[in-house]
Give the backbone structure.
Amino acid sequence: MKTSDFYFDLPEELIAQDPLEDRSSSRLLMIDKETGETRHEVFKNITEYLKPGDCLVLNNTRVLPARLMGVKEDTGATIEVLLLKRRENDIWETLVKPGKKARPGAKIVFGDGLLKAEVLDVVEEGNRLIQFSYEGIFEEVLDSLGEMPLPPYITHKLQDKNRYQTVYAKYDGSAAAPTAGLHFTNELLAEIEAKGVNIAYVTLHVGLGTFRPVKADNILEHHMHSEYYQISKEAAEIINKTKEEGKRVICVGTTSCRTIESAADENGKLKECCDNTEIFIYPGYQFKVLDCLITNFHLPESTLVMLVSALAGRENVLAAYEEAVKEKYRFFSFGDACFLTDDFTKSGR
């Protein structure tokens, strides 16, 4: 299977640059995962297609304001540091630009000395291990100095940091938002729960590998990035009960999907656990837990389009994306959503 099999033409003007004022007013393209049939909806109406006993799986990770602008202590040269993963205490794996100015031993100052850093080592893919020093609590310092690490295809400045967080974000650790969840409001979640739909919260800290292009011609030669996940006992029990009762497990976002599929045993059962996952889901994969998926529109030739194609079929997905382009849906992080489902029947509110 070739990477080029997942290409589609996307006009640049369809890449959403700003979030909508009302999170739940985005458009929703419903896709029948068996037939490829489509239906156009508004996201807040998704309640009408959820049934009592269904389970929504949400990723409650919080995005760190992980982009830091600093200066090299000896030369004053501007350096950008992007936090990727905490290795231990105050040592982080980072992406540094320009890398040639950040050799081991280099010292960087942020915010007039509120935060200082020293480059310790160069590791895989040219990333830097950096040790930070500061007074007080690191997260508070980061909140005052850091910017949201928006994807490279978003060029507008984000006015409100919270718009790149889900309303249920809880645990710090992501370098990118689980963007399918950005469409939910507290009111919509309350409406969904009032309908008898269960909600299971899992955690997967999204890495920047999410945006890494697939460079191999053969998708099997692509190496997935590692991401940390955690599933609580409560979440495992809710999801297991849903499957036992023959109801649907509906993942909100590819990160929630990758979490439960990584953690499930060969019988599709979950238990309380935490681990790192490098799972790569592409056509031919047999889902063990997930039944349906709510997700945004993804980049051409990306691992995320491959995951969606594993659920609904490559031809169905590419045809639906072609329709979305024709209908001028908004793409990527701040864009519209799609619901890959097995039933277009409205169940009412």
Summary: The CA atoms of residues 65 and 148 lie 4 Å apart. The mean pLDDT is 94. The chain has six helices and 17 strands. The longest strand covers residues 78-88.
